[in-house]
Design goal:
heterodimer; A: 268 residues; MetI-like fold; 2 domains; B: MetI-like fold; 10 helices
């Protein structure tokens, strides 16, 4: 009942948070079992019981569901996202840095960018399907579009946030061309670049799942699609959990790349 | 050194050149006959299609009717997200036990992309209005909650101490200290959440809806009418911009009133 006190010691607070987290999750499991099975408040046709989810998980992991087994679906989606994300963000970061470094490039590219920017990534899905069909090419296109915009914007603003003394020092030391990029622009913009990459990754993951929901042979989104058509709630939960878990793992991986790329910054 | 801003004429010249290059490339590709006009219409054909969609019904309704049904769903989902996220954020900032109870759940659910709720939206609501609203809610709720929480959590301790000394209970502390202190952060959160909500709505309409801009685009896709799909993208972009402009105005208005 007390208003938040100043700050507790961080180790004690972390332990307390963990205990609470596990306690809460356990309580939720008990409640879940309760409302679906013991008291029967929620029909399992609308939301599955925990045991059903476990058996659905076993089914998809061992026998497969929707043309493939769980790890094949997951691997396919993750590979698609990482490859599309890699290409889009490399192009996007270079373009963003160039726009940041030169006001002329900025002025030239900006109008196109202003046109494309307000269109949400998900809105590209129908266009990708018209142009490229339901295969991987269309998926790569929507991943590219969703990852591209945030990486350009944040690399651009990263360069513009570099402080003037750094530029002055670089000019005095006569850093030009490749060295100027490698030792001034990129390191200076790196924190912001990584912010952009994180946004790009999230956006492209969401968009891929949506594109697979609309139509795909395999992939985590196609589990969702198939289970929705089969009216198989337990499998829907498995699909949602897999989407969340893979998204979380990829974010963690990017975070560890981030701390390694910027050893001069204290770990968050 | 990045250099001084460009002179007005230079800026106009380059911006014009960029716009021209984009449109010229697009038109050239469309006219060259590499692909059929259906696959890649020229810019003016898209504009003409957009104008025709305003008066002529496609997929059941005219573009404006589709837009208004999308906006209606958006308003409902967004209002629900604010109605749930704002009080919960304040409660979490004030009562530590609520914070500890809700935070792990919230973190777990947040990683589920809003669009992944589509199967349950379809299962629970069919093609009724509930489905898209659920998905907008899932997109718009987290930023409202997070920003309310952060804004209220970082209120200066002296205000809380003063409130406690003056005998304010939890209700008055939350409504008269935490809420006003959190307003700038809340409004910033509203902008993010409106953007995410609008985007999630479009995704939802691609799959579970029988009206709305997203639905119109799916029908355009099925008819292999690139011009219709692109018109939908333009409409979505314009409305998204409009929503953002309104919220940005609100943000500035509030900051001015507080003398920030």
């Amino acid at each position: 009942m007390t208003p938040a006190p100043a700050r507790e010691s961080s180790a004690a607070s972390r332990a307390a948070r963990l205990i609470w987290a596990f306690g809460t999750l356990f309580m939720v499991l008990v409640l879940w079992q309760g409302v679906t099975v013991w008291w029967g408040w929620v029909s399992t046709a609308r939301f599955p019981a925990p045991a059903e989810v476990v058996s659905a998980l076993r089914q998809i992991a061992v026998d497969g569901y929707g043309n493939a087994r769980l790890h094949e679906h997951a691997l396919r989606s993750v590979l698609l996202v990482t490859s599309g994300f890699f290409v889009a963000s490399s192009v996007g970061v270079v373009l963003g840095l160039a726009m940041g470094a030169s006001r002329r490039v900025e002025a030239f590219v900006n109008p196109v960018f202003l046109l494309l920017r307000p269109i949400p990534p998900l809105a590209w899905i129908p266009l990708a399907i018209v142009w490229l069909g339901l295969g991987d090419a269309a998926k790569l296109m929507v991943i590219f579009v969703s990852a591209f915009v945030p990486s350009v914007i944040n690399s651009f603003s990263g360069v513009r946030q570099i402080e003037t003394p750094l530029f002055e020092a670089a000019a005095m030391l006569n850093a030009r061309g490749w060295r100027y990029w490698k030792e001034v622009l990129v390191p200076g913009a790196l924190p912001s670049i990584f912010t952009g990459l994180r946004l790009s990754l999230q956006a492209s993951w969401t968009t891929l799942v949506a594109a697979e929901l609309v139509g795909a042979i395999a992939g985590l989104g196609s589990i969702l699609n198939q289970s929705a058509q089969d009216i198989y709630p337990a499998m829907i939960v498995v699909g949602m959990a897999s989407v969340a878990l893979c998204g979380w793992l990829m974010t963690l991986a990017l975070g560890s790349i981030e701390t390694r790329a910027m050893p001069w910054r204290a770990a968050p | 050194m990045i250099g001084p801003p460009l002179a007005q004429r230079e800026l106009l010249r380059l911006t014009g050149a960029g716009t021209f290059a984009f449109l010229a490339l697009w038109s050239a590709a469309a006219l060259s006959g590499i692909t059929s006009q259906q696959f890649l219409p020229a810019p003016w054909e898209v504009l003409a299609r957009f104008a025709r969609l305003l008066t002529e019904p496609f997929a059941g309704y005219t573009l404006l009717v589709h837009l208004s049904s999308s906006l209606q769903r958006f308003a409902m989902g967004f209002a629900l997200a604010v109605a749930a996220g704002l009080p919960l954020g304040l409660l979490m900032a004030h009562f530590r036990w609520i914070d500890r109870l809700v935070a792990p759940l919230f973190e777990a659910v947040r990683f589920v992309a809003p669009i992944a709720w589509v199967p349950f939206a379809a299962l629970w609501f069919g093609t009724g209005i509930g489905g898209p609203v659920l998905i907008i809610f899932m997109g718009a709720f987290p930023p409202v909650l997070i920003n309310t929480y952060r804004g209220a959590k970082f209120v200066e301790a002296k205000y809380l101490e003063a409130a406690r000394m003056l005998g304010a209970g939890p209700w008055r502390t939350m409504t008269e200290v935490l809420l006003p202190a959190a307003v700038p952060s809340i409004v910033a959160g509203l902008r993010i959440s409106a953007g995410l909500g609008w985007q999630s709505l479009v995704g939802a309409e691609l799959i579970v809806a029988s009206s709305g801009v997203g639905y119109m685009m799916v029908k355009g896709q099925a008819a292999v009418s690139t011009a219709t799909v692109m018109s939908g993208m333009i409409a979505i972009g314009l409305v998204g911009l409009l929503i953002d402009v309104v919220l940005r105005r609100l943000h500035r208005h509030i900051e001015q009133r507080r003398g920030l």
